[in-house]
Amino acid sequence: MQLRSTSQPLNCSVCNDEITDIGYFAATVSKDEYKPNPQDAVCNACGFNQIGMMGCAPELADVTDFDSDSDSGSDQTLEQTLLHVRMTDNGISVISDKQ
Ligand SMILES: [Zn+2]
């Protein structure tokens, strides 16, 4: 599964810092690639300390619940996953995902 590249830097939706090493973000699963949702990105520190239980990785719902305009709820038919990613010189590499 390939990750569609994002040209913009990823910023944490909790602390607003740019994610430079390891982070999490939600992505929409499409045919054979992930379409990232950069607005739902969370840095490693916030993922563990602010969202997830102490010492546990966040769940997808923990990240996507930060959407303030998710009341409509009718257009969320696409499958989503939470990607655990590492920033590299060549872009973003996916460490793991969970749905
Ligand atoms: Zn953060």
Automatic annotation (TrEMBL):
Protein name per its UniProtKB record: Uncharacterized protein
Q: Which organism is it from?
A: Haloquadratum walsbyi (strain DSM 16790 / HBSQ001)
